[in-house]
């Protein structure tokens, strides 16, 4: 009887440790997220399931073109791409991104730009000063984000700059559906 009791205790202890480790990993390191909506097409599709690295920005700074998850409201997280970083001025003119008045190529949008109609605009012109807040440069602790589907995205053009402390993490790994399984590159 004692041997059976010890075996049950060992199993219970192992399960408790497994649940504790899973909780710690989920809470502090990685979490699943499901893409909701078309705002990141063609890069991400509605219902793509991804893994969010919640730890990465504890050891490094956000970088231009990182795809991030952030708390847009207390109830809802959004997935967007970082375009502007602290200290920078951002503008888009004639579908060309300018950072501090220097043209920046957005390789992830090139296929869309190549296939658009002559009179079609991918990104309406804007300057950082035109966005909510009216900043001349992005202040410390904030980033400017845009969806890849520029004409169908609630991003910094609507929300304003995103406080870095609302960023949940970086995502670059689609694990479901299997035909979309991939690690995204910039």
UniProtKB/TrEMBL annotation:
GO terms for cellular component: plasma membrane. InterPro entries: LexA/Signal_pep-like_sf, Pept_S26A_signal_pept_1, Pept_S26A_signal_pept_1_CS, Pept_S26A_signal_pept_1_Lys-AS, Peptidase_S26. This is Signal peptidase I. It is found in: Cell membrane; Membrane. It catalyses: Cleavage of hydrophobic, N-terminal signal or leader sequences from secreted and periplasmic proteins. The lineage of its organism: Bacteria, Bacillati, Bacillota, Bacilli, Bacillales. GO terms for molecular function: serine-type endopeptidase activity; signal peptidase activity. CDD domains: S26_SPase_I. Keywords: Cell membrane, Hydrolase, Membrane, Protease, Transmembrane, Transmembrane helix. Signal peptide: none annotated. Its main location: membrane. GO terms for biological process: signal peptide processing. Residues 9-176 form the Peptidase S26 domain. Belongs to the peptidase S26 family.
